[in-house]
Amino acid sequence: MSGSPSTGPSAGPSTGLLGPADVRRLAAGLGVRPTKTLGQNFVHDPNTVRRIVAAADLTPDDIVVEVGPGLGSLTLALLAAAGHVYAVEIDPTLAGALATTIGTRAPDVADRLTVLQRDAMSVGVADFGAGAPTALVANLPYNVAVPVVLHLLAELSSLRHGLVMVQREVADRLAAAPGSKTYGIPSVKLAWYATARQAGRVPPSVFWPVPNVDSGLVAFGRHEPPAGADRVATFEVVDAAFAQRRKTLRAALAGWAGSASVAADILVAAGVDPVSRGETLTVDEFAAIAAAGATRRVITPAPEPTIRPRAARALKRHEPHMAAPAPPRDSTA
Asked: What would the pLDDT profile of 170-205 be if each residue is shown by its tens digit?
């Protein structure tokens, strides 16, 4: 870890952003080979990182959490715009080199950086001390983008806004509205925390190595969750509804409710048409279903396992015989 939260004057043009040659030179010097396992695709285009930071609408008062800073391309641009940046990097080699890169290329803002060598899915409010993050800005690995965003929003109530760069398909899902083909579990769960919108597309050519998909920017602003709603219960309904998204809610929620008829009663009580589908509902409607189900669901305990007669006899043969306890030994003997 390095640095501590502080606010200073803008770094301005003294912050040297990384170009394609810089990225390759840094990677070679560290012996880093981008891996698909960690979803590593490093941004090497200065105009793209400037565009991301501009779209994030940061102020000098913002404390940013960046996930997966990699070689520091986006980090450099964030440090020029925000009061402090917490860079969360799981790769120990990259985490260890980031402070040196920033110190070399942007010494005026190096004290605004704190590096956390951690898995983003294990990060919590205690990791940030008194400097609770107010914004999330990151180029997220495609394979963990949705879980990371939802985890950080759940753990860090201080996050008020953000912008993430993700695979285009993921961007479509995160920002989808009810009734669209791409609306699903990520859309509803993000809507619990924030209002999301698409903020542009990013071509594969700005990355190294070049991915085989386009990327998209998703901006979000935090809002209050549905009044009086329980997040865990609501998300349980969302998961059940989209597990069988082609079915009506009456059928899709039968297992969750205890039966299709009970599910229908719950839906009616929540003001939702039982023959509608999950892809048409807002997060508030899912929350209403969860609340209505709190007192109406029929939870049937799992049946005891059945032991066949032959197995029961075999079990009986292997039961230890009860014997009288042996007298205690005299420990002084």
From this structure: 999 999 999 999 999 999 999 999 999 999 999 999
Q: How far apart are CA 217 and CA 226, in angstroms?
A: 26
User: How many other C-beta atoms lie within 10 A of the C-beta of residue 151?
Assistant: 17
Nearest to 48 by CA among 251, 273, 205, 183: 205
Q: Do 215 and 190 share a domain, yes or no?
A: yes
Give the CATH number, domain containing residue 288.
Answer: 1.10.8.100
Q: 123 and 16, same structural domain?
A: yes
User: Is the Cβ–Cβ distance between 195 and 186 less than 8 Å?
Assistant: no
- Cα–Cα distance, 333 to 324 (Å, whole number): 23
**Banded pLDDT at 304 (limits 50, 70, 90):** low
Structural domain boundaries, residue 63: 12-222
Any idea which of 35-39, 67-71, 99-103, 241-245 has the lowest mean pLDDT? Answer: 35-39
